[in-house]
Each structure stands twice: as structure tokens, then as C-alpha cells.
Amino acid sequence: MQMYAVLACQMNIMGVAGDGVTPLQSFNPNGGVTRAQSATVLSRVLWGSKHDGYDPWYAGHLRALEKGGYITNADPDIVE
Asked: pLDDT tens digits for 12-49?
């Protein structure tokens, strides 16, 4: 696995086990990514963990990106 993927997980940008995002152990660089997953990564890059802790896990991230004008479609199941 590339160091940048490990670093992104260590920085809690993506793939922290138990938060509903694919954990590092299941990292699949060739697999599809949902809007929920990509929005969570972008939101964490922009704002850190500010929008973590919602149910479902991606809701706060999608809401913040939509409100900020970064996305116009917040359907979490869209495959990017």
C-alpha cells in the first residue's frame, strides 16, 4: 500500500475503522467510491472532524458541502 493512503488514514481523512468508512484493512484503490465516501474525505480535508458524529456517519459532511456550494447533489449512493 502506498504511504499516502496510510497517511490519509492516520490523519483521519479516510478509512478509520468503526466510523462507517471503509477501514484501512479493506482499502481498495481500484474499487468504486460513493458520494458519501468522497464527500466525507473532502469535508475532512476542508474542516477536519468538525462534521463527524452524525447518523448516518456521512450526513454532516454531505450537508456541510451542500450548504457551502461544493456539491449540488447530496445523494450518498451515487458512485463517483
From this structure: 787 644 545 444 445 667 778 889 988 999 999 999 99
With 0-12 / 13-18 / 19 or more C-beta atoms within 10 angstroms meaning exposed / middle / buried, residue 60 is: buried
Q: Which three cell numbers stand for residue 26?
A: 479493506
Residue 29's SS3 state is coil
Sign for the pseudo-dihedral over CA of 3, 51, 73, 27: positive
3-state secondary structure of 68: coil
User: What is the model's pTM?
Assistant: 0.77
Rg (CA), the chain: 12
> How far is Cα 26 from Cα 22, in angstroms, rounded to an integer?
6
Q: For the segment 58-73, what is each residue's pLDDT rounded down to a tens digit?
A: 999 999 999 999 999 9
